[in-house]
Specification:
This protein is mainly alpha-helical. It has 2 domains: 199 residues, Fumarase C, Chain B, domain 1; 279 residues, Fumarase C, Chain A, domain 2 (Up-down Bundle). It contains 20 helices and 9 strands. The strands form 4 sheets. A 3-stranded antiparallel sheet has the order 4-6-7. A two-stranded parallel sheet has the order 1-2. β8 and β9 form a beta hairpin. α4 crosses α9, α9 packs parallel to α15 and α9 runs parallel beside α18.
Length: 508
């Protein structure tokens, strides 16, 4: 584990830190201030138990069963039953790296100090993260409201020693039983006490984990989109004038300006552009000329969503919440901070942006492969007619676009009331954020195809492209061999897509 340590204080956790924890380059600890808040909140729970007051989540049933009071002798059993009954997720398992982020987010949310959980429980979460031990968690089961109940229940089963774990050993995730894990972290499984089960599962942690991962990926893909645009612009010998700084100052949306500036930087010192200073092409098509106006809003949405999700991962998202005053007086208030609408709406919007980035990219692929625009052989075939060249890369991109069109349909409109109508409006945020990860993967392949086509076209142009585009060409040349004859391009697309997902162009 790296010497870099992230202190969970319930207020300052960032998406970058979560990615570092996910990737195993940072460890986690609990701040002293957070520890004190957690202790005070737990003291409030103990005071309630001593008083005999009836308080939801502490000594009552849950959801539609909240009117039933539970005897003090049964409170530990109540919490255990809650976890076992709610751990009914199905489908493929979450990636272990996503589970580690989910655990960290949950620990940080509890560290805000309004949940009434013991510090030792949060410390167990931290120890598991630091030891790269992720409970096995089926992906499907959350409605994005009332918390990510099913996934977080499977996580909590792990804390209780009733679940298997995936443990990273020398870079390989190996399935281990709970005994192995708790011996590894030199701790005992958690025996849940009053309110603790509810505190652990009432929250937006799965949604947030997926969103953090998707935002990290999209921050790379928007750079890749501008990079592919720049390569295609040079490949068709397009005009640079649409990217003139004066145009974008005249409509000063920040994302639009960022995109245009990035393109200007990549095509700077282009011999191709200089060689076509005098030509009869007055304007390029919208997929080039309007690209900053399409890419730019995506940049802004990514940045705004990042701000939103960093508020969310530093929030108390369970219910009820315990508010302790400086004098020790406290109040327990039921609310709805577990509702993931803000995350779901953002995920729906970002899914649409993935479609739009892929849509405009596919249009640029069409032009690079067209003699009318590129001035080269149709589909960049070496022998037209006898060979098909890169024809089917556009087909595949169109097929991916069709998939993205379906995936762009909003999940937030899929409300299904549950718990005997007590929970009558849900966000479906877990579905939305997982769907977004799929959208990112599809988008990466469309952008990969554009880069392959553009770089193949550039390979056949005598003049040098802009300095930044040439740097991209050099990277691509190490991954994709020139097209000397027809061949399957599947591996080429997958290799380039993996590069884009990993941020291989983000440092240019």
């Amino acid at each position: 584990m790296s010497d870099v340590s992230v202190s969970l204080d319930g207020a300052t956790l960032t998406t970058e830190q979560l990615i570092a924890i996910r990737d195993g380059v940072a460890s986690v600890s609990i701040s002293d201030a957070a520890s004190e808040r957690v202790r005070m909140s737990r003291c409030a729970v103990e005071s309630i138990l001593s008083s005999g007051d009836v308080v939801y989540g502490i000594n009552t049933g849950f959801g539609a069963l909240s009117s039933i009071t539970i005897d003090e002798s049964e409170l530990a059993r109540l919490q255990t039953n809650l976890i076992r009954s709610h751990a009914c997720g199905v489908g493929e398992n979450m990636a272990s790296e996503d589970v580690l982020m989910m655990m960290t987010i949950r620990a940080n949310s509890l560290a805000v100090g309004h949940s009434g959980i013991r510090l030792s429980v949060i410390q167990t979460l931290v120890d598991l993260v630091n030891s790269r031990c992720a409970p096995v968690v089926p992906r499907i089961g959350s409605l994005g409201a009332s918390g990510d109940l099913a996934p977080l229940s499977h996580l909590t089963l792990g804390l209780m020693g009733e679940n298997q774990f995936l443990v990273e050993i020398d870079g390989i995730w190996e399935l281990k039983d709970a005994d192995y894990v708790f011996e590894l972290i030199e701790s005992d499984p958690v025996e849940l006490q009053a309110k603790e089960g509810l505190s652990l599962i009432n929250g937006t942690s799965q949604m947030c984990a997926y969103m953090v991962g998707a935002l990290h990926t999209l921050s790379h893909l928007i750079v890749a989109a501008d990079s592919a645009l720049s390569c295609s612009l040079e490949a068709i010998k397009g005009s640079h004038r649409a990217f003139d700084v004066r145009i974008h100052r005249a409509r000063p949306h920040s994302g639009q300006q960022i995109s245009a500036a990035r393109v200007r930087s990549l095509v700077n010192d282009s011999q191709i552009n200089a060689s076509h200073a005098v030509c009869d092409r007055v304007q390029d098509s919208y997929s080039f000329r309007c690209a900053p106006q399409v890419h730019g809003p995506v940049i802004e949405l990514i940045l705004n969503t990042k701000k939103m999700i960093e508020i969310e991962i530093n929030s108390a998202t369970d219910n009820p919440l315990i508010f302790v005053a400086d004098d020790g007086e406290f109040e327990v208030i039921s609310g709805g901070n577990f509702h993931g609408q803000i995350i779901a709406l953002a995920a729906d919007s970002l899914a649409v942006t993935c479609h739009e980035l892929a849509s405009i990219s596919e249009r640029r692929i069409n032009q690079v492969l067209s003699p009318h625009w590129s001035g080269q052989n149709a589909f960049l075939a070496n022998e037209e007619g006898l060979e098909s060249g890169l024809m089917i890369l556009q087909y595949v991109s169109a097929a991916l676009l069709a998939e993205l069109h379906l995936l762009a349909n909003p999940t937030t409109t899929s409300n299904v009331p549950v718990s005997m109508e007590k929970e009558d409006h849900v966000s479906m945020g877990a579905t939305a954020t997982n769907r977004l990860s799929i959208c990112c993967d599809h988008l990466s392949k469309v952008l990969a195809n554009e880069l392959i086509c553009a770089c193949e076209a550039l390979h056949r142009i005598e003049e040098n492209a802009g300095s930044g585009v040439m740097s991209i060409q050099h990277i691509m040349a190490d991954l994709v061999a020139p097209l000397t004859c027809d061949r399957s391009m599947t591996n080429d697309t997958e290799i380039v897509a993996a590069l884009l997902l990993a941020g291989g162009l983000s440092q240019l």
